[in-house]
From TrEMBL:
<dbReference type="InterPro" id="IPR055553">
    <property type="entry name" value="DUF7129"/>
</dbReference>
<feature type="domain" description="DUF7129">
    <location>
        <begin position="3"/>
        <end position="48"/>
    </location>
</feature>
<protein>
    <submittedName>
        <fullName>Small CPxCG-related zinc finger protein</fullName>
    </submittedName>
</protein>
<dbReference type="Pfam" id="PF23455">
    <property type="entry name" value="DUF7129"/>
</dbReference>
Length: 48
């Protein structure tokens, strides 16, 4: 069954590295920064 909700969740998640503070978007679960290997955290997109 295919649902067609009007709300479509974002296809990608945003992450921020706790080491180098680089930000990434990934459609898969990231745990380590691809740049420096430090843990990343999922950051919500701020909405005004
Ligand atoms: Zn990093």
């Amino acid at each position: 069954m295919v649902r067609s909700d009007s709300y479509t969740p974002p296809a990608t998640s945003r992450y921020e590295c706790t080491g180098c503070l680089s930000r990434f978007e990934s459609d898969s679960h990231l745990v380590d920064c691809p740049e420096c290997g430090e843990p990343v955290r999922n950051v919500a997109v701020p909405r005004e």
